[in-house]
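Case study 2.
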Amino acid sequence: MTIAVVDSGGANIASILHALRRLGVEPVFTADPQVIKAADRVILPGVGAAGCAMQTLNKHKLSNVIRELKQPVLGICLGMQLLFQSSEENDTELLGIIPARLTRLKKQPGLRIPHMGWNTIDYLRPDPFSDTFSDDLKQKWFYFVHSYAAPVGKWTLASSNHGQPFSALVRQDNFYGAQFHPERSAKAGASLLKSFMELKTCK
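Prediction:
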């Protein structure tokens, strides 16, 4: 199996590559459209600003390449957010795969923004992806770092809450997304990455 990790200009790439290697695969970190198109699985990572990430994708002529992929694609943290239509963060237009707008988490007394740390997720609907998770995984905590969040909608497989509900795990056709960081979420995160690699969906 070949796994392409897209160079979107974000941070935390080493952690994702290391997490995949621990699962027995050797990922390719790349901005090459042909390598990305040919991969069995594609991961869109990201830590940083949505506008900067979109500038990087556009510079490498990857925006349309990603939109047209037919194999399973997993967006992680900012990578998940890039799958949406737009973001309040500098009024940025995103990839437009999921028809919704990201908004900044609302400030509330005693609530820290960004949402940083461990939190649980609540599964909202069955899906071949999340149905493969063991009951043990469904009860686990995941590690979040974000200031902007996606609304809950028909694309939401699981939600979380930080003063307000938001999408924590999403799917739109062959595009999947996790707002949390599976590569920093210990055994639960490793199980999620393993489930993604074992998806039966083909190109």
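The chain has seven helices and 14 strands.
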